[in-house]
Amino acid sequence: MVRRILRTLALSVAVLTAGFAGIAATPGTASAEPVGGLKKAIDVLPGYSSHRYDVKLHGDEPTRIQVAALEDDLELRVYGPNGVQVGQTIYVRAGTQEDASISPYLTGTFTFKITNPYSSSVKYCIILD
């Protein structure tokens, strides 16, 4: 049992390292960065909670969103300046990275909300560029 737990932990660390390396190594695309430049965070999200990132985006200029999760699944929702959700909820599965993009209809502050719907904490990385 201990051997299985250690093997699972080693695999989880390897997946997280590879996911973060993949995010860091992804070549830039022709997109506009959020006002003030690249936004990046690596954090731990406690169970049954959310982290919120308020970012000013340029109207009609695409912004790429990358999210990687390690231990459990996460949910990402994007809200426009008026507080209404923009697009669909993005589900980030444990050990994976999800990429999406948004082309705001106007310049304003958009909210990126990452939610952990489970009881255990989850380490994640989010990049907006």
Question: Care to describe what's here?
Answer:
It is a single chain. By secondary structure, the chain is α+β, with helices and mostly antiparallel strands. The protein has 1 helix and 8 strands; from the N terminus they run αββββββββ. Strands 1-8-3-6 form a 4-stranded antiparallel β-sheet, with helices on one face. The longest helix has 24 residues, at 2-25.
Features:
single chain; 129 residues; alpha+beta; 4-stranded antiparallel beta sheet; 1 helix; 19% helix
Task: Lay out the secondary structure.
Elements: H1 2-25, E1 39-45, E2 49-57, E3 63-69, E4 74-79, E5 85-92, E6 97-102, E7 108-116, E8 122-128
Antiparallel strand pairs: 1-8, 2-7, 3-6, 3-8, 4-5, 4-7
Instruction: Write down the secondary-structure element order.
Output: HEEEEEEEE
**Structural class, from secondary structure content?**
alpha+beta
> What share of the residues does DSSP label as strand, in percent?
over 45%
Number-wise, the strands total 8
Helical content stands at 10-25%
As residue ranges, the low-confidence spans are: 1-31
**Major β-sheet annotation:** 4 strands, antiparallel
Radius of gyration (Å): 16 Å
Given the structure, what is the number of helices?
A: 1
The averaged pLDDT comes out at 80
Q: Give the strand order of the largest sheet, numbering strands 1, 2, ... along the chain.
A: 1-8-3-6
> Quaternary status of these chains?
single chain
**Cα separation of the termini:** 42 Å
Overall spatial form: globular
